[in-house]
Amino acid sequence: MTTESKKEYQRQYRIAHAEELKKKQKEYRQIHAAEIRERNRNYMATHPDKKKTWGKNYYENHKEEVTQKHTEWRKANPDYSKNYYSVNKDEFLEKAKEYRLENIDKIKRREKEYRITHSEQRRALCKQYYATHVEQFREYRRNNIERIRDTKRKWNKANEEKCKIMDYNKLRKRRNRILDHYGRVCACCGEYHEEFLAIDHIEGGGNIHRKTVGGGGNVFYSWLLRNNFPNGYRILCHNCNESLGHYGYCPHQRNSIPK
């Protein structure tokens, strides 16, 4: 019998006796489980590249099954992972560092995708964590204020366009909250287009007040929000606001303009 004919015969035999062979293999594995595991460990230890490739291929083909088994095992053995990590912490950190350096683009892509798909969940968790650790955050900021400012300046310089967009969106969000509170209509003429509306100091003194709080625009909006929308402010359109500032009255409030 030639080699080719022998292989063909073996293939046909395996097909014809598939169930019987599976049963025998299962019995053999049960009887020699410890021996098989030891052989596998030795083989994997001497063939790390094959182990890595095999593990990656197996995970890709059985991702849901593997994830489910890992989840069930961790629930059944809650203390094992913690104890194992505490004993091998340095090794874990070193491997994590190496993996991140080798797969930095992949990790950043996944982190970005996660942030987009779990934005509301992350925001809620961050708020909850900050509320329970607010004193720790404040203490860290006090102790590292220069470091934080330096890091922020460097990041802003490296991401100027992104910072402009973020600042604009933050400004619009704060402005909308203030307009919603004080009303989105000019208290004098009824103008309702958002682009024409401004915040007016009812008793006057807007310039002095803005210098006191540190500026107008975003700084002034932040002050209103921090003070929980204080009284003494209203919504006017720019025409009415400018007229009150320059002339002390608005034409809408008078029947005629004095000569």
Question: Your description of this structure?
Answer:
The protein has 259 residues and is mainly alpha-helical. Among the domains are: 56 residues, no CATH class; 93 residues, no CATH class. It is 76% helix and 4% strand. The protein contains 15 helices and two strands. The chain has a two-stranded antiparallel ribbon with strand order 1-2. α5 crosses α6 and α12 packs across α14. The radius of gyration is 35 Å and the shape is elongated.
Number of helices: 15
Pattern of helices and strands? HHHHHHHHHHHHEHHEH
Q: Structural class of the helices, strands and pairings?
A: mainly alpha
Biggest beta sheet attributes: 2 strands, antiparallel
Multimerization state: single chain
* Number of strand segments: 2
List the helices and strands and how they pair.
Layout: H1 3-16, H2 18-31, H3 33-46, H4 48-61, H5 63-76, H6 78-87, H7 89-102, H8 104-117, H9 119-132, H10 134-143, H11 145-158, H12 160-182, E1 197-201, H13 206-213, H14 218-226, E2 233-237, H15 238-247
Antiparallel strand pairs: 1-2
Helix pairs in contact: 5-6, 12-14
Task: List key phrases describing it.
mainly alpha
